[in-house]
C-alpha cells in the first residue's frame, strides 16, 4: 500500500460512499474493466473502488509522463488490479502497455483522452462485440469519440463524463486552474505577481487558469478563436488579444485549447527572452515544438521539467514538461487537487455501474442526471452543507407552460 493513496482516500468522500455500498452489493461482479488514465494517487482510489465493486481491473497510463511509479507499483500489488503504467515510456512502450489492458478483454473501458477505445477499435475489432460500454474523462476524448460517432466508427455506448456539471464546472475550471499554476510555480520557482500571463483558450480550463492567475496578481491576457468566448473573457475583466499581439508581451503562456499549433513559429520569433511556455490541454500538440526546435541554435535542460531553447539572437524560450499537460507531467506535478477528482471519479464510478446495468446503445451519451445529482448530494453532505428543495407547487410551476403575466 502507499501513503499517497491513503492520503487521497481520506479526501474522497464520494468514492468512499460508493465503495461502502459496492462492497455489499458487488454490482461489478464478473466484470473486467480496462482503464487508461493518469496513474497517480486519486486514480488509484478510483481503481480500488471499481475493484471493491467486484470487478477485475486492468489499468495503464494515458500520458507517457504522468504516471507515478510508486503508485503504479502499489496498485499492481492489490488484489484484483493489474497495472501496466510506467513513467517516461516511449510511444511504442505506451501502446504495448495499452495492449496488455486489451489482452484482458475488458467488458467496460474507462478512458482519459480516448486512446484505449481508439486502440481497441483499430487493433482488436474482434473484441468489440463483447464490450458493454465505456466512459470518457476529458474534453479532447469526447471530441474524438463524437468524431468517431459521426463516421459511424464507434461501436458501443460511452458516457461523456467530461461534459457533466459535476465534472466540467469543477475539475476543468478549479482543478486545471489551481494545479496548472501550482505546477508551473513549483517547476520554475518563479513569482506570479506582476507577470503577464497569456492564456490561450477561454473554455472551461482557460476560464479557471485565467481566474486563478488574476487571483495571484498577474495581468491576464486571453486569446480565443470563438467570438463569444473572447467577449466573455473581455467582460470577465481580462485583456483579449490575438496570439500575434500577445506573443510580444507575455511572461508565461498557458495553452488550454485542445487544438494544435496554437503557439507557433511566428509567435516564438516575437517572444521575450525567458518566456515560459506551458500546455494544459490534453495532448502535446498546442505548442509547435518542431518549429521551435527548428528555430533554436541549442536546447538544454535548465531545471527538472524545464527545457530552454536558445534562438540565434540569444533569447531563451523555456518549455515545461515537453509541452505535455503541465499539471501532470513535470517531475513535481501532482495533478488536480484530490477533492475535485473525487467529483470526477465519483461520476466515473457510477457510470461504470450504469454501463453494466444498461449497456448503452452505440454512441456518445450524456451522464444520466441522477448520477450527477447523487454525487453532488454526497459531496454536500460530506461538507455539512444543506440546500433547499422545491415545493410541489414550485415543481409544477416550472414544468407547465400555461403560466404567464
Ligand atoms: N490539464 C488538465 O488536467 C485538463 C483537465 C480537463 C481538460 N483538459 C483538456 O484541456 C483542453 C481544453 O478543455 P476545455 O474543457 O477547456 O475545452 P473547451 O472546449 O471548453 O475550451 C477550449 C477553448 O479553446 C478555444 N480554442 C480552440 N482553438 C483555439 C486557438 N487556436 N486559439 C485560441 N483558442 C482556441 C475554443 O474556442 C474553446 O473556447 C482539452 O484538451 C481537454 O481535454 C485538461
Query: What's the alpha carbon Rg, rounded to whole Å?
Result: 22 Å
Query: For the terminal residues, how far apart are their CA atoms?
Result: 63 Å
Going across the biggest sheet, name each strand in turn. 9-8-7-10-11-14-13-12
The named CATH superfamily of the largest domain: Adenosylhomocysteinase-like
Molecular shape:
globular
CATH class of the largest domain: Alpha Beta
How many separate helices?
A: 17
Could you describe the largest sheet, including whether it forms a barrel?
A: 8 strands, mixed
What portion of residues is helical?
40-55%
Named at the architecture level, the CATH assignment of the largest domain is 3-Layer(aba) Sandwich
Strand content: 15-25%
Low-pLDDT regions? none
What is the average of the pLDDT values?
97
- Tally the beta strands: 15
CATH topology of the largest domain: Rossmann fold
Structural class: alpha/beta
Question: Which small molecules are bound?
Answer: nicotinamide-adenine-dinucleotide
Task: Supply the number of structural domains.
Answer: 2
